[in-house]
Amino acid sequence: MNAKLNLTVPKPDKRSTQRQSKLLPVFMAALLIIIISAVILIYKKIDNIKTNPAGTALSPENIKDMALKLEKQGLNEISALTWKEYINTASLDNIDAANIWYRIGKLYQQDNEYAKAIESYYRSESYAKIQEIETEISRRIQECFESLGKFAALQYELDNRVSINKSKDEVVAEIGNQKITKSDLDQKIETTIEQQLLQLASYLPVEERNKQKEKMLKQFSSSSQKMNFLNQIILEEVFYRKAREENLMNDKNIRDLLKAQEKSFLARKFFEKELSEKINITESDLKNYYAAHKDDYIQPERVKISHILVSNDEDALKVREKLKDETFENVAKEMSLDKVTSEEGGEIKSWIENNGVTYIPGFGNSADAKKIIFETKSGKIADKDIKTDKGVHIIKVREYEDKTQRNFEEVAQEVYQSLRSEKEREIHTQLLNELKDRYDVVIHHALFAEKENNEQD
Description:
Strand order of the largest sheet: 5-4-9-8
Transmembrane segments: 23-43
Number of strands: 10
CATH superfamily of the domain at 60-161: Tetratricopeptide repeat domain
Strand content: 5-15%
Number of helices: 19
Keywords: Isomerase, Membrane, Rotamase, TPR repeat, Transmembrane, Transmembrane helix
Protein name: Putative peptidyl-prolyl cis-trans isomerase
CATH architecture of the domain at 60-161: Alpha Horseshoe
CATH class of the domain at 60-161: Mainly Alpha
Order of helices and strands: HHHHHHHHEEHHHHHEEHHHEEEHEEEHH
Domain PpiC: 300-399
Pfam families: Rotamase_2 (PF13145)
Largest sheet: 4 strands, antiparallel
Shape: elongated
Radius of gyration: 42 Å
């Protein structure tokens, strides 16, 4: 009990302290490795959740299907990004990669992302130059540079894309470094003619349009005609370039106008596409239509006449006195005020049909004229004069034809026009009803009826 308590802190053992000091760096390094590994795992999980919330990585085929669906829906930019993801995940050879980059370029170009489109086309060529799309890529790159207004870059591009065939082709004009060859000019002429004839699709069958195309191409066979067309191309091109340089595309009024024209143009082209796909008129169709509508192709009775025009009734009497002793032709040359027909003895060249139309060539409109004309026998002078705002007409019927049934060969062109117009109306009505339903079109007719009633009041 007399033993004293030792309250002093014992001194550490030197060997234990040395061991602890050696283990501390090892422990800290291990701890750091564990922390870094955990952080990496966390980020990987977060990234996996972002790219694939379901937790399962998409296969290349799934990504490809997604890109195709997006492209079909017209979501071009998202589709392009998805195609890029497909390139990064799929094991593609250079040909496949080149084709997909070309596809991506077209998507960007459709969205007016011209710089991205150019990059994509260049990437396509960097993987492989595919003969089937090489010319198309070249054309599209030039279009993109034009749309960007980068004409210096365009010239550089053209300089580096002079193909073997082009170098052999005869150059007919140059705009800076852009060359227009003889084949370019010929192709442009042909394309322009085709576009013009396409507007006549409702009136001319394909065979007839091809004949017209051949005739129109012959008109450009002379050097002078080609030169005129070339000058028009150059005028359009240099004006277009200047407009781009002056940034007219940024003018709101111009943008609005172009947008309206684009809407109208695309609507018209869509309808033309539908017509071309759905209308196929055969000769059998034409003959069947003709047989069912024969009454529409009856030639009404018609006559050819001559006339003597004078200013008043008194002069008309003088003419009739002369006609007792002289031929109609001689009196017409002497006394008719119609200088167009008097030299020909008063002869009006065209046929006049008894079809209810009051207009008569050389006369104008006259309600009584046809009644008097068709009451007069062939070779005779009408008993009554015809009065119009031009004066007084004394007429002679030179030739008469009774109404006849026109044969199929004679009216084939008219039959085609009638049948095509009928089919166009049917397709137009059907399409309009379908698209109104698809796009939920609602017209509030009551509002228009109310407005009309207010206007009447």
